[in-house]
Amino acid sequence: MKAIMNHLNFEFKSVIRDKTLLLMNYLLPLVFYFIMAAIMPSVYSDFVKGMVPGMIVFTIMISTLMGMPNPMVLNKEKGIYRSYKISGVPLKSVFIIPVLTTMLHITIVSLIILGTAAVFFKAALPQNIFSFIGVYAVVLFAFTGLGVLIAVCSPNGRLTVLLAQVVFLPSMLLGGVMMPSSVLSKGVQKAAMLLPTTYSTNALNAVYSGQPAVYNVQGSLIILALGGIISYVLAAYLFTWDSKTSNSLRNLGGLAILIPYILGIILL
């Protein structure tokens, strides 16, 4: 346990020292949040009502999809994970440290967003803080699992960015971060349900504002929880300690992560 805490402390401080990770975990989400808060209300009058959930989901997306996978891939390419295996470090430790570190950074930024939104932009606080925390935890679980799976399935840093963008860009446009899913056409709404962002913004908005959700909240949380579980199981199954032993065809099994979201299209 002491070794894990020391490793966690080291990883947390390394993010602060690394300019790229500092950008992904803190600067980019906060700058984007303040820009959107300043511009969007004049374009979309109800933006402030869903601003906090949307910006928190954006923070989770940028940290887990764009920030977390690349260091894990680099560790594999540099042979660090191979030395872990030689030293008897269990696989769970490889996953736990980056996941917990990322969760901690995301939570710090989310608290900043909650506080400043209420003070500077007169945004309301969550209607039910405990429900909000519970939904937030499920969303974190789903996205950190997806980030780990991207890292495991990526043979190199270039492909890591590509895979992350395949999820990130459609999520920004269709996932309810910028505007509610209800403004999209029915066909586009169905396509957007392949993205965890759609379920995340749907559930967070509902417990934050107390307004009726576009999709069933409990169903959305079940889909996200299944997505997280499948992500971690697939990541553990597909993980290799050395990039040289990575098998691209085998890694296509990571597409099984789409199963719960396809079920969401059918059932919700």
Secondary-structure blueprint of this entry?
Elements: H1 2-17, H2 19-43, H3 47-67, H4 69-77, H5 80-86, H6 91-120, H7 129-153, H8 157-174, H9 186-192, H10 196-209, H11 217-238, H12 248-251, H13 259-267
Helix pairs in contact: 1-6, 2-3, 2-6, 3-6, 3-7, 3-8, 3-10, 4-7, 4-8, 6-7, 7-10, 7-11, 10-11, 11-13
Short description:
With 268 residues, the protein is mostly helical. The chain is 77% helix and 0% strand.
Secondary-structure-based class equals mainly alpha
Which H/E pattern describes the elements? HHHHHHHHHHHHH
The termini sit apart by 42 Å
Q: What is the helix tally?
A: 13
How is the main sheet built?
Answer: none
Strand portion: under 5%
> What is the share of helical residues?
over 70%
Total separate domains: 1
Number of strand elements: 0
Arithmetic mean pLDDT: 87
Low-confidence stretches: none
- Computed Rg: 18 Å
Question: Could you characterize what this model shows?
Answer:
The chain is an all-alpha fold. 77% of the residues lie in helices and 0% in strands. The chain has helices at residues 2-17, 19-43, 47-67, 69-77, 80-86, 91-120, 129-153, 157-174, 186-192, 196-209, 217-238, 248-251, 259-267. Helix 3 (47-67) runs antiparallel to helix 8, helix 4 (69-77) packs antiparallel against helix 8 and helix 10 packs antiparallel against helix 11 (217-238). The mean pLDDT is 87.
